[in-house]
Amino acid sequence: MLELLTGTGLALAAGLNAWIPLLVVGALDRFTGLIELPSSWA
Description:
Strand content: under 5%
Shape: rod-shaped
């Protein structure tokens, strides 16, 4: 059981590391003027 929980925790952490930076950059572009992304990313 411990192996299953460890594997799930590591997979969740890897998944969050993949999409959280993109979410933050997108939110900064949309709601603030700190970042300006190219129009092809819209």
